[in-house]
Specification:
The complex is a heterodimer of chains A (about 290) and B (about 400). Chain A is α/β, with parallel strands linked by helices and about 290 residues long. Chain A contains twelve helices and eight strands. In chain A, helix 9 links the parallel strand 6 and strand 7. The longest helix of chain A has 24 residues. The radius of gyration of chain A is 17 Å and the shape is globular. The two termini of chain A are about 20 Å apart. By secondary structure, chain B is of the alpha/beta class. Chain B has a six-stranded mixed β-sheet with strand order 3-4-14-9-10-13, sandwiched between helices. Chain B has a four-stranded antiparallel β-sheet with strand order 1-2-12-11. The longest helix of chain B is centred in the N-terminal third of the chain and has 16 residues. Classes of the chains: A alpha/beta (about 290), B alpha/beta (about 400). Chains A and B meet through helix 3, helix 5 and strand 5 of A and strand 2, helix 1, helix 8 and strand 11 of B.
Chain lengths: ~290, ~400
């Protein structure tokens, strides 16, 4: 497999976010628990050191999500989040890091009057979205979305699972741009006490991919982040552990500013952990 | 058309972690099911006969024939072991999982018929089994919960959303994405990612294979029409498959019209399950098909008095056959289904499943288009529905319902 990038130009935006050492990529569901609060939470993550932010656009049947993010999706949908409002939300955000939209294919597919994902991608580009992660869209079905992303200069990130091998890796590699989302373990999203030991072998299988490698699923603490980076990751993706902070805020009836401060603090800890993992001697790559 | 699709429908819209499992399943399907490798099909046919009780009879419904002035024949899948057509697929897939070397079976269930059939098949073949079932369905289909537990299966209630089939499928997919390396997901209908819709159809096609032979023996020819209820569509596709090439045989898929075909976008509720009649194209649970969804693409909560039809999607092949004009989608509402339930029970001595009752309700309203000879698929028996039916017919004042004053102090 050659090391030359399969795609140029548009990938620079997201890939650049990984250029200065390990990137911290947090995820929140947009509009969780409500529109105004969520704007503050996302901005707090940017202040806490996020290099890229993944924003979930809630879909009613999130088959790849564990209980934490499912609950966040329910809160957000009940507070009125939907595709159009999501774009307004993105435009209202005061952050200077690239934003990635994470959602399910039916919402991309239904948007606009024209058939296929093109109208959604066009509108996302206009709102300032840099790329997409679509958990229910494997390479086999991604042709139309890849074409639309190329047309509007957006990245299409794919998930590589512990079970992804052989031809499937090659097929995904052909279509990917921005970064690769390395799924640390099997299952749905959700914070864990231990980091999966399958991360390392997953990273080895894609060692020659030119896109940055971000690892997600189960990362909860700065220590996890450090270990993942030591294992060779270019970035860490943290979702459920941060969504938990939002959920606790709702349950405890905390003021938005207090939850935002906690999120900012957690973001700093995770970013520090990632940097720590990169600075230790055993982290050096031969 | 790629072989994962039926025209524009079908495909494999699933998380990456599941894709290798679908490839493995595709390979096993081709080798064992299509190619009879290691004698898989022979063993399946033997077990579905000796354990399942096939072939099921095709019988003439004398009083319905008189009532409608045409020859009405009943394909008796209610007589299959477990009381529904579901065992055809469940036994096939559990056996296939065994041939594939899988160690654990998971499945979703709506009415509990598929869960029951899977639990029976798993017990029969010595496999551990876990069933996901929406909380609403657990409560309205108690007899099937008891049956699954008694057969040794774990039953995991799903509390998300309205707690029906849609949520149960999502939750089973989540389990599978954790356990994909040693577990097989026995999907219960002709839905989901490829190769499930084709494979489930092939296991269920034994219904129409038998029925086509049986009707020729009885009448010397083919029927003018075939009628089956449609939720996800497994009994529908099973009953239709061998008749699809017979251009002169009309195929009617009867959906649940629920309480109304109108939808409420604000609450996200479609008070019916008529995705072929009223749905729009979209992607759900691994396949592109026709769905009940709002204008954003959020999936709506469906409704039917029958738990087994209560689903916002439908099998992609049925969506395709409807687009091609080969299958005619029709629908009947809750009340008509309840009337039909009582009619079949008193007129023919067969208590049908509420799902099945929809097919008979269509017979009542249908005009001459059904022709001289009609086969209706009796997809399942109604024991599981007795409590629901007695309650619902009382509440709605359905006239055909017997009164239950034999109990001291009435029903409750």
């Amino acid at each position: 497999m050659s090391g030359s990038p399969p795609r140029g130009g548009p990938t620079d935006g997201l890939a650049a976010a990984f250029a200065d050492g390990p990137a911290f990529v947090p995820y929140l569901v947009a509009g969780d628990p409500d529109y105004e609060g969520s704007l503050q939470y996302v901005e707090a993550l940017a202040r806490g050191g996020a290099d890229v932010i993944e924003l979930g656009l809630p879909f009613s049947e999130p088959i790849a999500e564990g209980p934490t993010i499912q609950s966040a999706i329910v809160r957000s949908l009940e507070a009125g989040m939907g595709p159009e409002r999501f774009f307004t939300f993105v435009e209202a955000l005061d952050v200077d890091v690239p934003l990635v939209c994470m959602t399910y294919y039916n919402l991309l597919y239904q948007y606009g009057t024209e058939e296929g994902p093109r109208p959604f991608v066009e509108r996302a580009a206009e709102a300032g979205i840099a790329g997409f992660v679509v958990p229910d869209l494997p390479a086999e079905e991604a042709g139309p979305l890849r074409a639309a992303c190329d047309e509007f200069g957006l990245d299409l990130i794919f998930i590589v699972a512990p079970t992804t091998r052989g031809e499937r890796l090659a097929r995904t590699h052909e279509l990917i741009s921005g970064y690769v989302y390395v799924q640390a373990r099997l299952g749905t999203t959700g914070a864990r006490e231990e980091v999966s030991d399958r991360t390392e072998s997953s990273l080895e299988r894609i060692a020659d991919w030119e896109v940055p490698k971000a690892v997600g699923f189960g990362i909860k603490t700065g220590e996890h982040a450090a270990r993942i980076v030591r294992a060779g990751a270019d970035g860490i993706i943290v979702g459920s552990a941060l969504v938990d902070v939002v959920a606790e805020g709702v349950e405890e009836g905390r003021p938005t500013a207090e939850t935002a401060a906690t999120l900012e603090e957690r973001a700093r800890e995770l970013k520090r952990g990632a940097l720590h993992g990169a600075s230790e001697p055993e982290a050096e790559q031969p | 058309m790629s072989d994962t699709q039926f025209g524009r429908y079908g495909g494999q819209y699933v998380p990456e972690a599941l894709m290798p499992a679908l490839e493995e399943l595709e390979d096993a399907y081709e080798r064992y099911v299509l190619g009879n490798e290691d004698g898989f099909l022979d063993e399946f046919r033997e077990r579905i006969r000796d354990f399942g009780g096939r072939p099921t009879p095709l019988g003439r419904a004398d009083r319905l024939s008189d009532r409608y002035g045409r020859e009405v024949y009943l394909k008796r899948e209610d007589l299959l072991h477990g009381g529904a057509h579901k065992l055809n697929n469940a036994l096939g897939q559990v056996l296939l999982a065994k041939y594939m070397g899988k160690e654990r079976i998971i499945a979703e269930t709506g009415a509990g018929q598929h869960g029951t059939a899977t639990a029976m098949a798993a017990a029969h073949l010595g496999m551990p089994c876990e069933i996901y079932m929406g909380r609403t369905d657990v409560n309205r289909q108690r007899p099937n919960v008891f049956r699954m537990r008694i057969n040794g299966a774990e039953v995991n209630p799903v509390d998300i959303g309205r707690g029906t089939l849609k949520e149960a499928i999502s939750e089973t997919m989540r389990d599978w994405s954790r356990t994909v390396e040693d577990s097989h997901y026995v999907i219960g209908s002709v839905v989901g990612p490829s190769p499930f819709p084709r494979m489930v159809r092939d296991f269920q096609a034994i219904i129409s294979e038998e029925a086509r032979e049986q009707i020729r023996e009885r009448t010397g020819g083919l029927p003018d029409s075939v009628v089956a209820c449609a939720g996800g569509g497994s009994n529908t596709m099973g009953m239709f498959h061998e008749f699809v090439p017979d251009a002169d045989v009309s195929l009617y898929a009867v959906e649940a019209g629920g309480s109304s075909l109108e939808v409420d976008e604000d609450t996200g509720v479609a008070p019916n399950s008529a995705s072929l009649s009223t749905g729009a194209e979209g992607v759900l649970h691994g396949a592109r098909t026709r769905l009940l969804q709002d204008s954003d693409g959020q999936i709506m909560e469906s409704h039917s008095v029958s738990a087994g039809l209560d689903y916002a999607g439908v099998g992609p092949e049925l969506a395709y056959l409807v687009d091609e004009g080969r299958v005619t989608p029709v629908n009947v509402d809750d009340d008509a289904a309840l009337e039909a339930f009582h009619r079949l029970s008193t007129q023919e001595g067969i208590i049908p499943a509420l799902e099945t009752a929809h097919a008979f309700a269509y017979l009542e309203g249908a005009a001459a288009e059904l022709g001289e000879v009609v086969i209706v698929n009796v997809s399942g028996r109604g024991d599981k529905d007795l409590e629901t039916v007695i309650e619902e017919t009382e509440t709605r004042g359905i006239e055909a319902a017997p009164e239950m004053s034999v109990f001291d102090g009435g029903l409750r």
